[in-house]
Amino acid sequence: MSTATGTPPSTPPARVLVVDDDPTVAEVVTGYLRRAGHEVGHAADGPAALDAAARYAPDLVVLDLMLPGIDGLEVCRRLRAEHPVPVIMLTARGDEDDRIAGLELGADDYVTKPFSPRELVLRVESVLRRSRAVTPEPAGRRPLTGAGIRLDPRTRRADRNGRELTLTLREFDLLAHFLSRPGRAHGREELMRDVWGWDFGDLSTVTVHVRRLRAKIEDDPAAPRIIQTVWGVGYRFDAGFEAGGQGGSR
């Protein structure tokens, strides 16, 4: 693991749970997060992670996918079912299927091993800022509407046709980005930069989140009418589409 140095941007202290069975990785990650000002707990296996999350009430979980007892994907699934806590996954470089599965389960971000601890801290800072109701510009703090959807950045709540949508942090920010720029074609690189704050990364992250968002707002996710694919470019949000209206939460 790299031992990059430097001080990340200041973010109000948070409770972070690090779940990794490699003692060296856990020691380095917890050390960097503590130096960034956060309170950090550690669990070395799946059952301990679930127990710690219930007792510790973390603001964010850094979760390795390869865990003894209960694997990281199952831990992520249970965390998302029980606690609306942001999750950053740690994955091996070649585990694309597991990475996509984790994103499908609602993980907010991932970092691929081997990684720079400073990069991980920056990712933690980014997710924490969004989880604390800081909305991406230029959406601002005004309510956004379109396609039967109403999204309030101040309360971080959204509904379609009166039914509340259950969205992860990234899904909410992605929807806010689309609603604030209706009718525009958005490239996946642009979405990664503006919504995730990354200048690099795996574009499948965007694809997975668009698919998850479609499942929650489209009448027929297999034939999307609201978030349309623009071949060779990316996606376009049709704010004027109004239909039967079963766009409830899942």
From TrEMBL:
Modified residues (4-aspartylphosphate): D64
Keyword DNA-binding: yes
Key words of the record: DNA-binding, Phosphoprotein, Transcription, Transcription regulation
InterPro entries to which the protein is assigned, alphabetical: CheY-like_superfamily, OmpR/PhoB-type_DNA-bd, Sig_transdc_resp-reg_C-effctor, Sig_transdc_resp-reg_receiver, WalR-like, WH-like_DNA-bd_sf
Domain OmpR/PhoB-type: 141-239
Gene3D superfamilies in the cross-refs: 3.40.50.2300, 6.10.250.690, Winged helix-like DNA-binding domain superfamily/Winged helix DNA-binding domain (1.10.10.10)
Response regulatory domain location: 15-128
UniProt entry tagged with the keyword Transcription: yes
Any matching Pfam family: Response_reg
DNA-binding region: 141-239
Stored PANTHER family: DNA-BINDING DUAL TRANSCRIPTIONAL REGULATOR OMPR (PTHR48111:SF4), REGULATOR OF RPOS (PTHR48111)
Name of the protein described by the UniProt record: Response regulator transcription factor
UniProt source species: Streptomyces katrae
Upper lineage: Bacteria, Bacillati, Actinomycetota, Actinomycetes, Kitasatosporales
